[in-house]
Structures are given as C-alpha cells and as structure tokens.
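call fold(seq) -> tokens
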Amino acid sequence: MSHQRVLILEDQAFQRGFLANMFNAAPGVTVDTSGDAADAIEMCHWQRYDLVVTDLMMPGVDGIQFIQALAAQEHRPMLALVSSVSQRMMASARLMAESLGITVLGILPKPVSPADVRELLARLDDARSGEGPAHAPVEVPIKATRERLRRAIDDGEITAWFQPKKSLDSGLVVAAEALVRWRHPEHGTLQAGRFLPLIEQHGLESAVLRHILKASIQAQARWREQGFRIPVSINLPPHLLERGNLPDELLDLTLQQGGTPADLCFELMESSTTHHVSDYYAGACRLRMKGFGLAQDDFGQGLSTVHNLVSTPFTEVKIDGALVRGCARDPALHSALATVIALGSRLGLNIVAEGVETDAELATLRKLGCNQVQGFLISRAIPAETFGALLDQEKAAHRHTELGQPGALAPR
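ret:
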C-alpha cells in the first residue's frame, strides 16, 4: 500500500478521534483532522490530500457546502461520506459530488468499523495506482477536425475494446460489450468520453457505429477459432433510428462481414432519443425483426422508464451502476434492484448489472437473481486479442476446477 494522506472533517470531537485512530492504525497513512468545514477548506487549499472523509450534518458550513467548495479547488481529493443521515440523503450527496467531478470512494453510515476503513483505503490505493474504477487519467483537451477523425476511423486508430460480461450461474465470461477507444499517436489510448463529443459534433456517429460493428464481428470470428461463441453488445444512440433504413444497413453490413445477427445486441443508450417517438419504436422493432438483440442501456438513469422497458421489444436490460454501487449496504438501493430484476425476469429479459466493483455487490446481485455482471471487479475493457487470452486462461482454470486439481481457480 502506497503512502496516503487523509483529512477527516467531523464536528463531534469523540467521532473525530474515533475515526482518526482507525485510519492512523493503517500503515502508510498520515491523518489530519478538522472540526470546522471552513477550516477544512483552507487546509485543502494548502495541503494536497488523497482522501477527505466528511460528515454531512455540521453547524455553520455543512457537509454539502463543504463538498461544493471542495469542487472549486484546483486539486480535488477523493471523497468518502460518513454520516448518520438517511441512506437516500447520502446517495443524493454522492450524486451531487460526482456531478461536480469529485470521485466518491464510499458512503458509510455511522458507526464506522475498522473493516470499513480497510476497504476504503484499499479502494484509494487501487484508484491512485490506476487499477480501480475511481482512477481518472489526467484530462488532455482533444481537438480534431472532421477530416482527422475520419482518417482515425479509416486507419483503425479508433477501434473497439471489449469489457467481459460474466454469468452469475456458471461464473464464466459469456458475452462482451464493445467500447470505443482511440489509439492516439500523441495522447495514447483515449476513452470514449475524451473524443465522442467531437464525433457527435462532426456527424460521424453512424460511421463509428459501422466501424465498431465490423471490429466486433472480426473479434467474434477470432474467438470462434479459439472455440468460443461470445455475443457482443454495441452502443447505439437512439436518435440514429430517425434514419429509417438503418436496420437494413446494419443487417447488410453484418452479413457482408460474416456475422450473425443473433450474436449481436444493440444497446439503446439513454443519453438521446428521437424527435418523433414513432421513429424510436419503428427502429427498435425493425432491429429485432432483423434478428439482432436489443438492450435498454443504463436502466435507472436519465430517460429510461418502466413504460419504455415494457413497451419496447428488448431482449436485455442493463442496470445502471448508480443502482448497483452500495446495494449491499443500502436498503433503498437493494429494494430498487430487487424490483428491477424481478420485472426483467417476468419480461423474459437477460438482466445485466453494470459497474460492479465489490464482492459484496456481486453477492447481492447473485442472490437477487441477476443473470450477468460487468464492471471493474470482473475486468476493465481490453483489446480483442487480450480478451481472447482471457477466455483461454479462464477455460484452463475452469477445467482445473472441474478436475479438482490443486491450485485451481473457482469461477467468480
């Protein structure tokens, strides 16, 4: 574990000392404390902290105002919320902090246990090393003309990486989601959020969709040669369905590339919709009629609704990570998840949970009857060749488990 500097903001002296003792007991941790939010803001201005642990209910400047002030700092430490307020209020505070660009490592009800502190510090260590979900690379502004983006697509700089989906029944990787990446010659491998706004701005979303579809089919062909049939899901902005011939174009391209529609699923993203609802339903129906799978992406966020779920011919529902994070400890999130999973099961849908980060979340989803999971606990998105190596390794480990050989790895 690397050296970590932590600030604890808690107005009650006993609670402040109690938390400080638990953090100080961990090796390599330096702890500062404050009982006043205004003082803590000043401390963050002069000292770079890796983690700030804050209460919400405090006299004077409260925890919410403190987080807002923290977001205005040049250096934003990661955050943990520790409070006796309701879980819903804690969840709302977390969403507020994340919307301001602050990474929230955890929300913990009082009293906090030593195990809570150990898990929090482990997450912090993973995040700082770049191995955990909270790690965010330094943002480098990406600028590109339409011609440069077009060339990046044509030359294969913009391509598909694949995030595994594991079955909660078998414990094996059974599917993948294709995620767009740009292997930029100057800035390295860029995630989608760094350049997709430019793709949208220059009207190249359809070109990227076709490109990712081709890359996915090519990857599936390689995996089949290894003995694996891996369905792949691909993000599709719903406003593209305004083009009535899009399902025909996607089918033609799939068949030209030697792909199988049944092994491809288009995830209708919640971030956009069509101007006319008729285009949305017509496009969804026609994609299914062509034999493609169809998923409601990010269910539980944005534009996704229960009405939309039951009135669109989906084959899969993907539960947004916002409903998954903390579900093992938050009764409200647990109940919401149980309702969504039960509804998806009654509708005959494949149920996939996104953003799974802890073993506790995985166990909760398994108990609730979720079918598949993806997230940093399983694997981040990886290139097609690395995905193929992962499949081979998992197959070998599973064979050892079935044979009962020493050192075998049980499916997770």
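The domain at 146-403 is CATH 3.20.20.450 (TIM Barrel).
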